[in-house]
Each structure stands twice: as C-alpha cells, then as structure tokens.
Amino acid sequence: MTEQAAPAKVNLFLHILGRRDDGYHLLDSLVAFAAFGDRLEAFDADDVSLSITGPFAAGLADEPDNLVLRAAHLLASSAGIVPKARLVLHKNLPIASGIGGGSADAAATLRLLSQLWGLQPDPALLHRIAQRLGADVPVCLASHTARMTGIGEQLEAAPPLPSCGLVLVNPGLPVSTQAVFRSRDPGFSAPARLADNWPDAYALAADLADTHNDLQVAAIRLCPTIDQVLAAIASDRDCLLARMSGSGATCFGLFPDAGSAERAAKAIGRNGWWAWGGAVGQGFGFPPHKQPPSGVTQTGDTP
Known about the structure:
By secondary structure, the chain is an alpha+beta fold. The chain has a single domain, classed as 2-Layer Sandwich (Ribosomal Protein S5, domain 2). The chain is 29% helix and 26% strand. Strands 1, 2, 3, 4, 5 and 6 form a six-stranded mixed beta sheet that branches. Strands 8-9-7-10 form a four-stranded antiparallel beta sheet, with helices on both faces. Helix 1 (67-79) runs antiparallel to helix 3 (123-133) and helix 5 crosses helix 7. The protein is globular. The two termini are 17 Å apart.
C-alpha cells in the first residue's frame, strides 16, 4: 500500500487579467496549501477501481467521471500500461468549494500511481497530463506555494510563506465556478505587486491587503451566506485578513500562528459551518498517513 496527501489549495489573491478568444480567463494568483486535506491510498490489484470514504464521500457517490480515475487512466495511457490499482479516497474537504479538492486529488493520484507502478515520468509530461485534468491540477502537483498565471498552467516560484496560521470555513453551499465567472462585473485587474519576502504573517497580510479576489463580489451575489462567513472570520480578534478562495464558497482567514487559527476555527464552527484551523502546509502539506492536530468542525468522522 502507498499513500499520498492531497492538501487543500488556497488562493491568497485571485486577479482576472483578461480573457482569451477561446473563452478561458487569464489569471494571476498566489496559491498556498493548508496542512490539511484529502488522503489517497493505493493497493495492488488486477484492475483499477475507486472507493470513497470520509465526511464528504456522499457528495461524490453518483459522480460518473471522478478526477481520480481520469488521472489514473491518463497516466497509464502515457506510460503504455494497463491501469491496475485499488484506490481509496478519504474525502475530508467539502465538494465544489473553491479549495481545489478534486484538483488536489487528481494531482495526488499522479504522484501516487507513479510510485506504485514504478514510473519515473518526465516532469513536463506530468505537467501536461495535469493540464488536461483541470486548471488547478498543475499547481497541486507539487503543493508548494506558487504564483499561478496564464489559465493556471504557468507556475512561477514564490517566496516561501512565513510561519502563520490559516482558517478555512465553508457554509455547506456549493457554488458553480461557471456561474460565478458569468456573474462577475466586466473589466479586468492588473497583475499584483508583491514584496520579495515576508518576515512574518503581519507583513504578508499587509501585502495581501493591496490585492483582492475578483470573483468574490459575484460569488456573494449568488450565495449571500459567503458574506456572513467572511464577517465571522474577520471578527475574530487575531484575524489579519479574511477573503474568499477561488470561486467559493470556502473563505479563509490569515492568522499569526497555527494556535490562534485552530482556536478561531473551533469558535466559528459553532455556526454549523465546516471549519478547519491550523498551519499553512509545506511541500505535500502533512504526513499522508496522519492528519495533523487541528480545529476541525464538520459533520461525520474524519478517518
């Protein structure tokens, strides 16, 4: 058995710079990862299969074309082999929530099956496979903080984030990415200007205050509860910045340290929302065999 973590992706800012003739939007985003997420296991088998467990497994039960299986078939096809693995996805992240759960799962599948099948694929090939699976999958492959541009396929190194805490809150209301893009106000933003480094969480928050998420206003129009979530996060005494991630509905709060974030998540979760608080992840986020201690408030048991 082999396993991989699939940490939650967080867009610390998201600027829409333009739109290509084919309809795809050009983005500028600083992407970070939480020390929490889904978990994927793989076992030797005679064919390929997927079972899903965890608090949010039911949301994927009727999905005919799961990204995990698509990733498995694409990787096998690229290597000229028959896909053989029994895959188990522990779904700890809300579905369709703006924190890249499906994209992180697909990326973890590519890493996991490369290991299980004894492959050493060229990184450029893995990147191309990731692009075919979705705009967020390339950045999730390494799960390192990165500057994401183009339509998501262009990745640039970003300064390492300082030690800081992160709160994620989802109200349990899925938001359609396509609907949010259609509802956004016309016009485009300029690329963000960021410092070369941040000595601490306070400096990072001050820099991010000059950026924004261009999809946030549209998402709030479609799902007004997002505004309540943002207000709840921002009202915490230790919160340095509150913002929506991706196209929503998950919102995040930046905190001075993991302890204050964990405390805030437990308090905010009393509203009946899913909430997690802990550290910003490094590398693949957390040991794949174990979720870190954190302030998780959600329905169901986390495996």
